[in-house]
Amino acid sequence: MVIYIAMEFEIRFSGHENIRSNHQKTIEITKESHLTPSGDCIIGVNASASCADLPPLLKKKLQNPNSKVIFSIKVDKHEFNVEGRGHENLTLTHLEDIVIRKSDFVCPRTLAVKCDKSSDLIPREMILLLQNPKTHGTFTIIID
Question: Per residue in 9-27, pLDDT tens?
């Protein structure tokens, strides 16, 4: 008998005046507090966790290519959901960043691959809110 337990992990983050969110392949949050306009996939800074900070059981589930992952990004009354997959080659060791990708590319910053959305699809109302450093959001990882 196999029992599957769903997991949920929430990461808090802040906005920044340089958030553009117009990248067509990725979404990123970072523990860094500084952001240049060239970081066009970044939607949040001062994140409460990076790939390296994730619980071991969550990492193990993310390293299963059969795992379906849902990401819920909430800012004020807005919510944006992304679906992705785990990958057996995820190392989840980056100390600052979390990146979810539409592609199969894997590096220490990659949290999930084959995602169905990228930062350019996030509603502009959310991005306008995130361009205020006083705005806070949550990035929730839900995995079956």
Answer: 999 999 999 999 999 999 9
Kindly state the greatest CA–CA separation across the chain.
51
- pTM for the full predicted model: 0.94
d(CA 37, CA 17) in angstroms, rounded, equals 9
* DSSP type of residue 118: -
**Helix, strand, coil % over all residues of the chain, rounded to 5:** 15, 35, 50
Would the pLDDT of 97 be above 80?
yes
Q: Which residues pair with 14 in a beta bridge?
A: 45, 136
For residue 2, the one-letter residue type is V
Would you tell me how many other CB atoms lie within 10 Å of the CB of residue 82? Answer: 21
CATH architecture observed for domain 8-143: Sandwich (2.60)
* Contact by Cβ (8 Å): 109, 51: yes
What mean pLDDT do residues 85-93 have? Answer: 98
From residue 143, how far is each of 12, 40, 43 by CA, in Å?
Answer: 18, 26, 21
The domains of the chain are located at 8-143
